[in-house]
Structure formats: structure tokens, C-alpha cells
Amino acid sequence: MNKYGMKIGVTGGIGSGKTTVCRIFSALGIPVFAADIDARNVMETEPEVIEKVNQIAGRDVYRGGDLNRSELAAIIFNDRELLEEINATVHPVVRRNFESWQRTQDTDYVILEAAILFESASFRNVDRIITVIAPVEERIDRVVKRNNLSREQVGDRIKNQYDDDYKVARSHYVIDNSDNRLIIPEVLRIHQDILEQINLRKKNG
Q1: Domains of the chain
Q2: The pLDDT value given to residue 148
């Protein structure tokens, strides 16, 4: 990445629409690293991570060769300590993957899309943070429709993420992705502001 470039973190609770926001940035030519997708890949392919996940789960959750995500979720989403152990195993690898990836980019800025940007401490590795918010009931409805999860299962995931107030207080930008809001103008405004910040860096050498 060029020396004046920035790393921008995009986060939001499950169902908030952060991936939709990132698609708009991508359409503007901004590279996006999807940490959640990379984390899933790491959990499927890294032997040391697989071994550690089984240790934490207390059983083989890879029977048949593939991670049984629903079984793992049932174990960790009701036990915050186990969830934190999984995150501490997976996310250092994801962080290294992101750092390697961003060094190959040549744009004014790149985006790290991460559902648990704060929970995994990845916020320390970015220059600006965008948090995407939406009402909890709308978020639950979205996830139930797309992921074949029960409302209770979605609620468990929400309880294990920091709430919007926490994230908003620590963010540089906030995008309200309620069902009746237009987000493209907000993304364009933020995009322009980031470019102005980068131009200031260039002027100041």
C-alpha cells in the first residue's frame, strides 16, 4: 500500500449490513478484506488452529473432515470464556493474513471488514473505524431470513458482541442502515472525507 494510505475498519453487529456497505466501497474501487470469511477459512485449513479448536471444544468438531459450525456454535455461544479462547486462537492468524494482503494493495486506502473488530482487538490496527448500525429487531429479522437460524440463536450471537453504543462511541463514522435509510450517500460522504484526510497526509509529507 502506498505510504500515505489508510487502513479503515468497518464493523457492525450481526445483521447490521456491514457487508452491503463494503460492497459499495468495493464498487468505488476500494479493496475489502473480509475478516469473517478469512476466519472461516483459517478454521478449516490451518492444522494448528483445527487442533486448538478441538481442544477448546472438548470434542472433535471436525468429524468427516469439515468443521461442524452449528455444533461449535452451540458450545461456545453460551460460554463467553470458550468464545474468547476461540477468538484468541483464530484472529491472530487473520490479522497476519490481513497485514500481508494490505501490503500488496496500491490504493489510497483499504478496508478491513470485521464483525468483531473491537472484540478481537483488531481496531488497534486500523486508522479509522466505521460502524454500521440498525435496530436490533430489524437485524434479527434479516439474519433469520438469510441464515436459517432461530431468533434465539441470533439473539445469542448478538449478546456475544459489544452493543452499538460501545462501538459508536469509539468510531470515526457511523452509518445508520435502518430499513428506511439510504446508505449510498453516507458511504460517498465518508469516502470523500477519507480521501481528504489522505491528501492532508500527502501535503504534510
Answers
A1: 6-203 (3.40.50.300)
A2: 80
